[in-house]
Amino acid sequence: MENLFFTDKGSGTPVVLLHGFCxxxxxxxxxxxxxxxxxxxxxxDLPGFGxxxxxxxVSLEEVASTLNYWLGELNIERCILIGHSLGGxxxxxxxxxxxxxxxxxxxxxxxxxxxxxEKKETRNKVITFLQTHGVKEFTDTFVPGLFYNKxxxxxxxxxxxxxxxxxxxxxxxxxxxxxxxxxTDRCHVINSKMPVLFIAGDKDGAVTIDQxxxxxxxxxxxxxxxxxxxxxxxxxxxxxxxxxxxADFLKKSIS
Length: 255
Fold this sequence. Notes:
45% of the residues lie in helices and 15% in strands. The chain is built from eleven helices and seven strands. With 255 residues, it is α/β, with parallel strands linked by helices. The mean pLDDT is 95. It has a seven-stranded mixed beta sheet, with helices on both faces. It has a single domain, classed as 3-Layer(aba) Sandwich (Rossmann fold), CATH 3.40.50.
């Protein structure tokens, strides 16, 4: 995979942060700055997003293979992988196929479950909307809807994310929507012996609180965090808290 754009800060144990749908590596700017004091933080743009080239046929498995090849080029033998939303789906696909490459992994507002029939229908409607109305009309509504906490200090981040999302490639969004719709259940992956971080929002409309509680019932409770009054974007809605949660997970997973 040529031209997989990424940022690389700090030194020490490699930690890879994966962004979600309609996003890029920039969602991790502040978190990576904080964490790079103690770890090597790498934030790639997934294929087709940001400054990375697209894949001809997007699947979560193919994206995971692309990341594995990229890590090999960087001579990274093992890392911790944390993904937001779509990035979490890629993380699970990677953990299933390349478990030997991971020290641990994290799901940040994501889920191990496959789509329900109702969710699949919603994905189909998104595809139709994108084909009919284009990217900007979709992202102008989609991105703000991910937030529950829309306080004044968060609104600036929402505005920036909306602007960036509007520049996404139409076919990229359609292809990833299909990939998310067709993904398999990977709940067996989070029940592995390696450390798993799970961060959820109790007001998340994309991953419901009931779903989050169900899939984490057998995980180490020390690494399971349900954020109150928070939607799908905890890295912005609960910046200080989520930074502490990730930092604590990294320190304890590596020690």
